[in-house]
Amino acid sequence: MKRYVLKHSVGQCTRLLAIAAFSLIATAFTFGQVAKAQPASKPNIVLVITDDQGYGDLGFTGNPVIKTPHIDHLATESSQLTDYHVAPTCSPTRSALLTGHWTDRTGVWHTVNGRSMLRENEVTIGQLLKDHGYATGMFGKWHLGDNYPYRPEDRGFTEVYRHGGGGVGQTPDLWDNAYFDGSYFHNGEVVPAKGFCTDVFFGQAQRFIREQAAAKKPFFAYIALNAPHGPLHAPQKYLDLYADQTPAIASFFGMITNIDDNVGATRALLGELGIAENTLFIFTTDNGTASGANVFNAGMRGKKGSEYEGGHRVPLLAHWPAAGWTKPHVSDTLTHAVDIVPTFLDIAGASTPAGLKFDGRSIRPLLDPAADASSWPHERMLVTDSQRVRDPIKWKQTAVMSGAWRLVNGKELYNIKTDPGQQQNTIADHPERAAKMRAFYDAWWAELEPTFAQTTEIYLGHPDHPVVSLTGHDWIQKALPPWNQQHIRVGYGYGPARAGRGRGNRARRDAGKSVHAGHWAVKVLTAGRYEISVRRWPLEANHPITASLPPGTNVPGASVAFRARPGVTIPASAATLRIDGKDIASKPVGATDSAIAFTTTLATGSHELAPVFVTEDGHEVGAYYAIVKKLP
Predict the structure, then answer these.
(1) Which of 345, 284, 224 lies closest to 81 in space, CA to CA?
(2) Which among 31, 164, 218, 534 would be 20 to 30 A from 510, CA to CA?
């Protein structure tokens, strides 16, 4: 345990010794399992990834407040990466994690604006493992597209249970979802559920695991959680655990402890089913902490969204008894989310399809306590950036990483071994190293830049997805779109008082009138007549366009639920169908109309769809929702 303890402070060592003592008496798992010379083929894989939980938001990494006993115990019997990096925000990390490609290569460099959809030419680990004989399940947060061909069921997952968009209550999610007793998409069908969302998603994953164990079929369970991402809600018993903290921390940490309990229950299930031995169990997170930095950030600078270490260095634990990954084996070698897909293929014994080249490489030698990692290329260079714009900008919030070195934004150079808090810019002392890292980035950017113009388009007229639901979350525009249901309720983008104000709401002006500046990028596969039905409220609400909406009930936690805001009136007098910048048709909006339907002929190919409502005073607001159907 010597190498493991050296990574932590004296206080952390005391914590780790207590955790180790706990592990000796744990009955669900065995600490001292003997490594097998040849693990069985096709191990099961369970990957748990949380949302907005940082490296410091765990007990075993030194957090003095948080309660994560099950994950802390997992750390005592797992291989651990302590220099593992992702993107600073959620969709980009998921794209790299699932494809083995740089986020900017996949078309996913933002979380909204049509830039969170995984390009159709990308192949996911779900598809690759499915082709290798695995059952593949996805549970929770996808955030890589809600329409064909971007949904998880379109990308190789045989069992899908998820919410919409990037979180419960976001615009693509089912209306009025708020963490408790929601409705979700199960293999494309809407189903109601009872309980807290994290419990529901783990429960569905556990059902899938039971079914595959009974069928004796190898499986990949991708458990991707929306927690502890805001809004900050948790069951009351978890809030009570942190009654001495601020409401925000109580909710944030409460969600994490709830996750921890579910991790423990899932691992216990693997033992109960007799499949823990040949199951690779991985726990990790998707970016730096969103809320916990003021309590503990493991000495790092930055948090979620930052190009500094705290924005993208996250924990990764890997436990695989059949391969001998049962001890606290630590690797402090630089790794990245792009390494996960080639690693899983290596572990599963699957070959890489011809023509598919990864940006990452298998890190199995770093995770295997018995492997020789001396030949590992320790000077390899990796890139992470936080674009969060419509079109990528060179060097925007970018870190080039090599060994202990971090070149930040092309202007700052840090050695995190000697300066883990990134306080001393040493670029003047190491000009040659900085020049070498800049040259790598220049070549990296030059390779990827030509792909940026390849817009991810939502398909219309595909037989597997004849009815397409569009939401304002995916408007392509310079400003942030209405990405959550609170934005919908407050009339995001409407009116002279709101035009150009508030959370990215910078509507263009035309003679003093607000003008809708966004559009949906669509690709018509089959030419013909289409019905385009535009809405102010979603289909589930079935509410008049010009009517207000009463607030829904709140739920426990520090945040006000998105649905607990009143829905304001938008006095729309007409609806206009705008395609490719041209107004095709307009219709009046009646007092009882919940939708305005247009029929138009669309040619095959790419189009910009931008229907709007025009108000009595001449302002425009984009139709937050549109449903498109191919007519016979």
Answers:
(1) 284
(2) 534
